[in-house]
């Protein structure tokens, strides 16, 4: 039987937000079984659920009762990838710290404090029939599977077409997905800044892609694709439970990711079974 997990102790992280450029402080606290992952901002609780997503413009943003938290996807990917089902995330500031633009520091902190098993079986979303969402040249498809498997395909400036598929396990996530940093195409940069985005970006935290090559040495030959998998895993955490499915993504981003999560929830009575996972 698969059990729920939480952190062993409180973890504290400080840093600058990627888009706001403002300083923030984050405390990851243990939580009891069944509480799920919940953000706490100015005394107001925001469950990490798709129903509270209010923006997906270059980041996933949650809002409830006047409290708003931006750029949650890397942190949620770390929790999801390491199998953390329950945590209270206290946030000071408008945005989760970007750190090095990946989820590696979150993984290091969580593993450093330890993960504790709880005496309750894990909740599970099981896909029983294909589900998909489409937008022009982008597609996100969920197929039945006995485990969580992610496949991503897309085109990246200077790198061409890339494809990667892997079965998600904590060790695989920590090694192959968590270190992948945020990226942007060179022709997008001025437009993003004009929209008030990327104010906290730096040459060390964001890889700029162009036909002449990346602005930084890549950690993986397909690092931007792996970052897309990172974002996808973070957005899938908004289901509020573990997922068994093979997710196939073609040029998808936050908006389509959240649409798929909402579709899984909406169709749960017909196509998704939520129950107790078993070996």
Q: How would you concisely characterize the structure shown here?
A:
This protein has about 280 residues and is of the alpha+beta class.
The shape is globular
The fraction of residues assigned to DSSP E strands is 35-45%
Total beta strand runs = 19
Order of helix and strand elements from N to C terminus: EEEEEEEEHEHEEEEEEHEHEHEHHE
Structural write-up:
- The chain is α+β, with helices and mostly antiparallel strands and 279 residues long.
- The protein has two domains: 120 residues, lpxc deacetylase, domain 1 (Ribosomal Protein S5, domain 2, 2-Layer Sandwich); 153 residues, lpxc deacetylase, domain 1.
- It contains seven helices and 19 strands.
- Strands 11, 12, 13, 14, 15, 18 and 19 form a seven-stranded mixed beta sheet that branches. A five-stranded mixed beta sheet has the order 2-3-9-4-5, covered by helices on one side.
- Helix 1 packs across helix 2, helix 1 crosses helix 5 and helix 5 runs parallel beside helix 6.
List the topology elements.
Blueprint: E1 3-7, E2 11-16, E3 23-30, E4 37-41, E5 44-47, E6 53-55, E7 61-64, E8 67-69, H1 73-81, E9 87-92, H2 104-113, E10 115-121, E11 123-127, E12 131-135, E13 138-143, E14 148-156, E15 160-167, H3 170-177, E16 182-185, H4 189-194, E17 206-209, H5 223-236, E18 242-250, H6 254-266, H7 268-271, E19 272-276
Parallel strand pairs: 4-9, 11-18, 14-18, 16-17
Antiparallel strand pairs: 1-10, 2-3, 3-9, 4-5, 6-7, 7-8, 11-19, 12-13, 13-18, 14-15
Helix pairs in contact: 1-2, 1-5, 5-6
């Amino acid at each position: 039987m698969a059990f729920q997990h939480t952190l062993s102790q409180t973890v504290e992280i400080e840093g600058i937000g990627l888009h706001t450029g403002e300083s923030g402080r984050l405390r990851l606290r243990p939580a009891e079984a069944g509480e799920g992952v919940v953000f706490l901002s100015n005394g107001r609780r925001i469950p990490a659920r798709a129903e509270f997503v209010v923006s997906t413009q270059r980041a996933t943003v949650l809002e409830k009762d006047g409290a708003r938290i931006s750029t949650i996807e890397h942190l949620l990917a770390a929790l999801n990838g390491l199998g953390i089902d329950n945590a209270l995330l206290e946030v000071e500031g408008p945005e989760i710290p970007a750190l090095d633009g990946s989820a590696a520091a979150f993984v290091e902190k969580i593993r450093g404090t330890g993960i504790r098993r709880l005496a309750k079986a894990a909740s599970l979303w099981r896909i029983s029939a294909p589900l998909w969402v489409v937008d022009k040249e982008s597609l996100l498809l969920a197929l039945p599977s006995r485990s969580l498997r992610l496949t991503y395909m897309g085109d990246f400036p200077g790198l061409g077409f890339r494809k990667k598929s892997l079965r998600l396990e904590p060790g695989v996530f920590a090694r192959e997905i968590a270190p992948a940093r945020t990226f942007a195409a060179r022709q997008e940069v001025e437009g993003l800044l004009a929209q008030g985005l990327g104010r906290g970006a730096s040459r060390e935290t964001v890889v700029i892609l162009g036909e002449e090559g990346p602005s930084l040495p890549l950690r993986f030959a397909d690092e931007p694709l792996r970052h897309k998998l990172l974002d996808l895993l973070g957005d899938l955490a908004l289901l509020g439970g573990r997922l068994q499915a093979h997710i196939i993504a073609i040029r998808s981003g936050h908006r389509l990711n959240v649409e798929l999560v909402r579709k899984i929830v909406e169709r749960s009575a017909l196509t998704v079974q939520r129950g107790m996972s078993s070996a």
